[in-house]
Fold this sequence. Notes:
- The complex is a heterodimer of chains A (113) and B (109).
- Chain A has 113 residues and is mainly β.
- Chain A is 0% helix and 45% strand.
- In chain A, strands 2, 4, 5, 6, 9, 10 and 11 form a 7-stranded mixed beta sheet that branches. In chain A, strands 1-3-8-7 form a 4-stranded antiparallel beta sheet, with no helix packed on it.
- Chain A is globular, with a radius of gyration of 13 Å.
- Chain B has strands spanning 3-5, 9-13, 18-25, 32-37, 44-49, 53-57, 60-65, 70-75, 84-91, 97-99, 103-108.
- The model of chain B has no long low-confidence stretch (mean pLDDT 96).
Amino acid sequence: IAGITQAPTSQILAAGRRMTLRCTQDMRHNAMYWYRQDLGLGLRLIHYSNTAGTTGKGEVPDGYSVSRANTDDFPLTLASAVPSQTSVYFCASSGTSGTGELFFGEGSRLTVL
Amino acid sequence: GQNIDQPTEMTATEGAIVQINCTYQTSGFNGLFWYQQHAGEAPTFLSYNVLDGLEEKGRFSSFLSRSKGYSYLLLKELQMKDSASYLCAVMDSNYQLIWGAGTKLIIKP
C-alpha cells in the first residue's frame, strides 16, 4: 500500500530554473493539497484540488502552479525558482474536501540557490 | 487575522504525562485537529474535536473548549518514540485548515 508518493525526495536547484514536484496517490481520494513547511511557521497551503479537473489557490500560491488531469496525480510546478521557495513541500490528500483528516506524502526538500 | 498559538518546545520525562496547549482565533470553526510529525517525516493524523469535551484514544487524549478557543493534547505514559512535533490545526468557515507552527516535544529518560 503506497498511499501518497512524492518525487523527488530532495533536490538542489539553481534560481531561475523550472521544477516540477510530482505527487501520486492510490487511495482514490478526491481532494489533494500542496503545502510548504518552513521552520517556525505552520504548514501553508499553496494550491488545492477538490476533485479531478478543478484547482484552487491557497494561502501562498504566487510562483507556483498545479494541474489535476486525473484523480491520482497532482504535480506542483515552480516556473522560475527563487531562493525564497527553499522549503519542504508536502503533498496531501483526503477522501473529500472539507475534512481535516489528511494523508501526507513523505515530503520533497527543495533548495534553491 | 487567523492565528493558532502553541508552545515552541516542551520537555518531559519518560513515563510521565504532558499537556500541549493550543489556542486559536479563526474566522469560523469546523473542527480542531492534532497531528504528530517525527523529525524528517510526514505529519500523521492523531485526533479530531468538533464538540466541547475530551476525546480519548489510548494514551492520547484531546480536549476542546470552543468558547475559550482552546484545546490541549494530553499524552500519558510517555515513551521515547513520542518525541516529535505536535501540530494543532483548525478548520475555518471556508473549510480550510489553519496550522499552528507546532510544538517540539523532547522526551528524556
